[in-house]
Design a protein that fits this description.
326 residues, alpha/beta, globular, 11 helices, 12 strands, single chain, 3-stranded mixed β-sheet, 7-stranded parallel β-sheet
């Protein structure tokens, strides 16, 4: 099958494209720079250089494929303006879905985020839980998802939406900070450490994407894809410390002063294009609970996470050590 993957220079898109190639599919990727592609040369790999914000580049990439995985997303940074998030998460989605309609693409899987649910007040959240996006990333991801679902339903496009929980595994650097935090002799934690942090190992997430693209039951549906286990932050940090053979001593610190400092730093630094020394959303990591129910994905997709949380964390820690990151 000929398949298009956007966002293939990112952690998730890279692993999805690699798995599809390993499964024998012809894989086309749309990337802004070929130099950033980490996939090994492969006879079934077709690299197209272009931007999801460019309608013509998207049409050219979609033409001739049978399936589309939209993994492209805007990476959070101080130098990114709100319009960038909107152009990629909303305008780019429109370009893809309009092209999918024009070229009769058989299946489309769109990657959203559990962040659309924000701080989960009544855990665990399901696909039907209230929306509460907290920042421009989450708000534009929600806008793009809702537009895609409405457009697909109106035009008969076989669309499925996946909302991943926190993604981790060998090759990921976003959660390296969490491992470094757990590796300290004394681990400072803002708040009480009782908030939940739901994670998904990359191989399980890739399997969830593939199932969403294959099962007829997935058409028109939204699925939260996460791991089978869900720990509170203190337990998660203690587990990582145990894996790293580090002392397990956590020091809880009131979060409010850091929340205020983060908000102030963002207001001053971001308009100037300067990375703030502290972000409000990084403080919110310690105080906002993220706990999700994956029962729907199990029932309709036959999704079953294969990697236990401790096993996945051990594999990730091994890779970090191999890269001299820990």
């Amino acid at each position: 099958m000929k398949i298009l993957v956007t966002g293939a220079t990112g952690f998730t898109g890279h692993n999805l494209a690699k798995r599809l190639l390993d499964d024998g599919h012809e894989v086309r990727i749309l990337v802004r720079s070929k130099k950033r592609v980490a996939l090994a040369s492969h006879p079934l790999l077709d690299i197209r250089e272009g931007d999801i914000r460019d309608r013509d580049a998207v049409r050219d990439s979609v033409n001739g494929v049978e399936k589309v995985f939209n993994i492209a997303a805007m990476f959070r940074s101080a130098k990114s303006v709100d319009q960038d998030y909107h152009d990629i998460h909303v305008k780019g989605v429109k370009h893809l879905l309009e092209a999918a309609l024009e070229y009769n693409v058989a299946r489309v899987v769109h990657c959203s985020t559990v962040g659309v649910h924000g701080d989960v007040k009544n855990p665990p959240a399901t696909e039907e839980s209230p929306f509460a996006p907290a920042d421009i990333y989450q708000r534009t991801k929600l806008e793009g998802e809702l537009w895609a679902r409405e457009f697909a339903a109106k035009n008969g496009i076989a669309l499925s939406v996946v909302r991943p929980t926190a993604i981790y595994g060998p090759g990921d650097l976003r959660l390296l900070k969490l491992f470094k935090l757990a590796a300290r002799n004394v681990t400072p934690v803002l708040g009480d450490g009782k908030m939940f942090y739901h994670m998904v190992y990359i191989d399980d997430l890739v399997q969830g994407f593939i199932l969403a693209s294959e099962r007829e039951e997935a058409i028109g549906e939204v699925f939260i894809i996460g791991g089978a286990e869900n720990m509170c932050l203190d337990d998660l940090l203690n587990t990582i410390a145990q894996i790293l053979n580090k002392p397990r001593k956590i020091l809880h610190i009131p979060a409010l002063p850091f929340q205020l400092a983060g908000s102030l730093c963002e207001k001053i630094c971001i308009p100037l294009g300067i990375e703030p020394p502290i972000y409000r959303r990084r403080v919110d990591f310690f105080t906002k609970s993220r706990s999700f129910d994956i029962a729907k994905a199990k029932a309709k997709l036959g999704y079953q996470p294969k990697f236990g949380l401790k096993e996945g964390l051990e594999l990730t820690a091994t890779w970090y050590r191999q890269q001299n990151l820990l």
